[in-house]
Design goal:
Blueprint lengths: L7 E2 L2 E2 H26 L4 H71 L7 E11 L5 E11 L6 E13 L2 E6 H4 L9 E4 L2 E9 L4 E12 L7 E6 L6
Antiparallel strand pairs: 1-2, 3-4, 4-8, 5-6, 5-7, 5-9, 9-10
Amino acid sequence: MSARSPANISGIPVWLLRGGILVALVIGGYLIFELGRIQANYSIVDSTAERQALQAQIVGLEEHIIALDEEITLLETHRDIDREAYKDVEVNLTGLQRKIQEQSDAIAFYRGIVSPADGGRGLRVQELKLKKAKGEHAFTVRLVLIQVMQHDRAVKGNVNISLEGEQDGVATTYTFQQLVPPDEDSSWPFSFRYFQDFDRTLVLPDGFAPERINIAVQSRTKSIASIEQSFLWQTGQS
């Protein structure tokens, strides 16, 4: 009998035998892997279902995020609109409050002329304001004079003021004529029936610190008395 070829074992080709062994090893390995997953309570069906549920949840969350972004954009738009509307309301409200205050001040002013609370009569200093003016040591004196309850005739006269304070540490008093700018008239006449307002400029000497301003309203009209009032020197009043 002749010997079999090494490429054949029991009539089966060696390559086919090797392929069968390889397939058996792969199948065996997979079966062992699946057995391990089964022993670990792993289910491919449950895993697939869980994955699908997670994917659905992700999609839902993404849609919710988009909805929230749209809502945020809408709210920001409303906020901007409300902000602009609020600014308009605030501006209008401020304007109305200013007008109301101006009208209230005007009513109080004219009431003080017609029927003052104390029932007094004659000349009065209704308002005195002191503000810094342009120029070194320059100030503006805003003075409003009124005639209370006596309106059958005009009152005439002159205003004179003086400043009390310290000049280089020494008590000093300056008259209006000493403080008025050189290019302005040093006289201060008045003539009115109800009220009159003035804006006069004072230039203080170097080193002078004012403390009080004295107002002398000298009447030249018969039966209307002159008045004198003294005020603390306070600048920047509104």
